[in-house]
Amino acid sequence: MQQVKIVRRIHRRLDGAAEQEKTVLGGVRHDRGNKIYLQFKEIISEDMEPVPTLLTVVGDEVVLHRKGDVGGDMRFVAGESHSLMYRTPMGALPMEIQTSKVDVFVSQDALEIELKYNLLSAGELLSEIDMGIRAE
Length: 136
Fold this sequence. Notes:
Elements: E1 2-14, E2 17-32, E3 35-42, E4 51-58, E5 61-66, E6 73-77, E7 81-88, E8 91-106, E9 111-121, E10 124-135
Antiparallel strand pairs: 1-2, 1-10, 2-3, 3-4, 4-5, 5-6, 7-8, 8-9, 9-10
């Protein structure tokens, strides 16, 4: 178990509009066999409590599991689509993640993840997302 600084950047696009976000968090990294776990409390919005989050990496598969008022299990595998029920304060929404890119770079001192995916609900594109996560 190792304390880490996690830097997460997100670039979202929809209908030509784009927004970027960068967040720095503290967390814990666990390496067990071929699995890597990052535990941290994610800040979704300023008016909500931080959301306990577990990120799991196994090879080229990344799973982001959020617990609390918002969340669900978001699974990322390049070239695959995965469905989930995403919890929000207003209720659960059926969503689909279409992942086009998953790059994972692992060293003893750092973990870097690059994801590129589309987020859809009821077949309608909600946003195109590029997410980068670095833990060191």
